[in-house]
Amino acid sequence: MHIFKNIYHNLFKGFLFLILCFASTASHSEIIIGVHNNNLTSINKSTLRAVFTMRLNRWENGQKITVLMLDQNSKIHREFCVQKLGVFPYQLQRILDKRVFSGKSQAPINVSNMEEMITKLLNTPGAIGYISEEFVNDIPADITTF
Amino acid sequence: MIFQQILRHFKIMKTLIALTIYALFSSMAFAINLSKNIQLHGFATQGYIKTDNYNFFGETSRVKGDIDFRELGINASYRAFSNFHIATQLISREAGAVDNSTIQIDYALADLQITSRNQYNFGLRVGRVKNPLGFYNETRDVAFTRNSIFLPQSIYFDRVRKLALSADGLHIYGQKRHKFGDFDFQFGIGYPRVDNETEIAIFKTDRDGLMKSNLSLIAHTSYSLNAGNQKIALSWVRLSADYMSTGAENAVASNLKNANFSFTPIILSALSTHGDFTISSEYALRFFQFNNMAPYVPEDIADLTGESYYIQMQYRLTPLFEVFLRYDIIYLDRNDKDGLKYEAKGYGNRIEQFAKDATAGIAFHINSAWLLRAEYHHIEGTAWLPVQDNPEMSNNQKNWQLFSVLVSYKF
């Protein structure tokens, strides 16, 4: 009995390992934060979290913050959540839902793809968004990257 | 029977039409040139409930169960300046005989963020503001933000909800961000919402007189690490209300003349997420004080302390699927946990004094707009059973079961 239990246990572990391997090789592109604000020289993780959870609505120079975000199910959004905020997309979404449905803040502005993200970033002073490394050459000079 | 059904559908239609009109108006008002600062969001939730020995939100103990549980909401917000917005939400909730789809202003507030620095921010909210109690009270009617179909009833009991839902007043809030974590606080002062629901909870019936709330205080602080992956929170509120009896009532029970009560819950909440696994728990002590409410509230139980807690474990199997287990306990009087003293004094059946709820559930997060949940409860005791749905409360069945399926949409 005990031996069977062990075999099952190891099989399960192996299966889990395989899933993890697939999950980690599926996508891995570096994410860059883009901000339309020349005065900003650095942004740390806790400030970034405050911005993307809509807690902070002005930059230190007084400029209005506009948060741009891709769909929750997009691969780049997932990478952004994990790499830059240290949460899963559903966790960020729940934080945002709690704020939006209690009147504490508005929701981020939705963009449908990287092109729209970059265009909106360029056209909206104070906007913040995120860009996948494949698009790094498309980032205009007016956008500060971190 | 058919006529009743038509009437009920008419009620739903009326609600939907009213919500749509509200949505149109609130968007039209600013849509002309300020549209990018306006947002509209909403949700619609429909539940199916089947119980065995008692009713919960409708005639749920029938063989086929009931679908008399529905939550509709719509909100509009306008960001007038970078650090100032106004927001309001209308909610219509149908829950058996507890809630009858009346449209209510859930919140209506103006929010001014006075200070916005990278490491801290501070602001004010004025108007009808949701009460920040525990992890879930502020958005308890939004299925997407709950941790199950029904929130742990020991702490978020649905049979007396409005009292603790929101209050009309002023809140200050702030967050200090530090490399050791984020510290949040919120303090409020305001008039809570009371209505016949509160009367029914106390008097077991909707009396002729009126409940009137007094200025109440609320405080909530939390400390979180890793964007809320580890979080502890402490909430405290002091709510009180006076009962304004009618002349006829005074003639029968003169002491009702100065009847009032206070309710002071304190809730400690903790949550920890490790990868796909989340464990959470909340513990509450609830201090009640009733004055001059005999014989409805006898003097010897007019000053009592209730105790509640739950522990929940959630596991996200895939980004779409989630399973959870929960054990949830409430004691209406922590000095009489099994209700024996209560029963010995002839106040009622002892099973009304506690409830122990073991729950297992699954969630299917179809996409960001749709959510499907199913859960099963095995409950011992009837402490949070709605009186409204069970006119003859004690049928001596200590154990009962509840099964529910819910579908929710949001935009």
Give short descriptive properties of this protein.
heterodimer, A: 146 residues, alpha/beta, D-Maltodextrin-Binding Protein, domain 2, five-stranded mixed sheet, 45% helix, globular, B: 411 residues, mainly beta, Porin, 52% strand
Task: Describe this protein's structure.
The complex is a heterodimer of chains A (146) and B (411). Chain A has 146 residues and is α/β, with parallel strands linked by helices. Chain A has one domain (29-145): Periplasmic binding protein-like II (D-Maltodextrin-Binding Protein, domain 2), CATH 3.40.190. Chain A is built from 5 helices and 5 strands. Chain A has helices spanning 2-26, 45-52, 75-85, 89-100, 114-123; strands at 31-35, 66-69, 109-110, 127-132, 144-145. Chain A has a 5-stranded mixed sheet. Chain B has one domain (2-410): Beta Barrel (Porin), CATH 2.40.160.10. The longest helix of chain B is centred in the first third of the chain and has 30 residues, at 2-31. Chain B is mostly beta strands and 411 residues long. A 16-stranded antiparallel β-barrel of chain B has the order 1-2-3-4-5-6-7-9-10-11-12-13-14-15-16-17. In chain B, 13% of the residues lie in helices and 52% in strands. The radius of gyration of chain B is 22 Å and the shape is globular. Chains A and B meet through helix 2 and helix 4 of A and strand 1, strand 2, strand 3, strand 4 and strand 5 of B.
Chain pair forming the biggest interface: A-B, 42 and 48 residues
What is the CATH superfamily label of chain B? Porin
CATH architecture tag of chain A: 3-Layer(aba) Sandwich
Average pLDDT confidence of chain A is 85
Q: What gross morphology of chain A would you assign?
A: globular
Per DSSP, what share of the residues of chain A sits in E-state strands of 2 or more residues?
Answer: 5-15%
Helix-strand layout with pairing:
The complex is a heterodimer of chains A (about 150) and B (about 400).
Chain A lengths: L1 H25 L4 E5 L9 H8 L13 E4 L5 H11 L3 H12 L8 E2 L3 H10 L3 E6 L11 E2 L1
Parallel strand pairs in A: 2-3, 2-4
Antiparallel strand pairs in A: 1-4, 1-5
Chain B lengths: L1 H30 L6 E14 L14 E16 L2 E12 L3 E18 L3 E11 L31 H4 E13 L2 E12 L3 H8 L6 E4 L2 E10 L4 E15 L2 H6 L7 E15 L2 E15 L11 E14 L4 E11 L8 H5 L9 E11 L5 E11 L18 E12 L1
Antiparallel strand pairs in B: 1-2, 1-17, 2-3, 3-4, 4-5, 5-6, 6-7, 7-9, 8-10, 9-10, 10-11, 11-12, 12-13, 13-14, 14-15, 15-16, 16-17
